[in-house]
Design brief:
This protein is an all-beta fold. The protein is built from no helices and 13 strands. Helix content is 0%, strand content 48%.
Length: 128
């Protein structure tokens, strides 16, 4: 079910930065793993990053390591995704989701999973 509202997307030039927000409106983020996804037109949805319920564990897809940073502020019931050094291939609809625990098997995040809450997404377009 829905429950998140994402914001912060927009049109940015290559090399630019954005800070995406994912605000929970009808439930608490406490105890939930929060994940970010992106989907480019014509492509499958890609798992970008997650942060565990404690905030101690994070995971990044290979294509975004070193450029993206996920965080959470449970007092504000909001998670964030700082995206830096943007590239045209980062263009897509970025959305967030939550479930009690994000699944990792042999160090690989199994992002194709059932999530308790999702958001409609915010569009990020990287272009000159």
């Amino acid at each position: 079910q829905l429950g998140f509202v994402e914001s912060g997307g927009g049109l940015v030039q290559p090399g630019g930065s954005l800070r995406l927000s994912c605000a929970a409106s009808r439930f608490t983020l406490n105890g939930l793993c929060v994940a970010w996804f992106r989907q480019a037109p014509g492509d499958d949805e890609e798992g970008v990053s997650y942060i565990s319920s404690s905030g101690d564990d994070t995971y990044y897809g290979d294509s975004v390591k070193g450029r993206f940073a996920i965080s959470r502020d449970d007092a504000k019931n909001t998670a964030y995704l700082q995206i830096n050094n943007l590239r045209p291939e980062d263009t897509g609809l970025y959305s967030c989701a939550a479930r009690p625990k994000c699944t990792v098997i042999r160090g690989v995040w199994i992002y194709k999973n059932e999530y308790d809450y999702r958001g409609p997404g915010t569009q990020v377009t990287v272009s000159t």
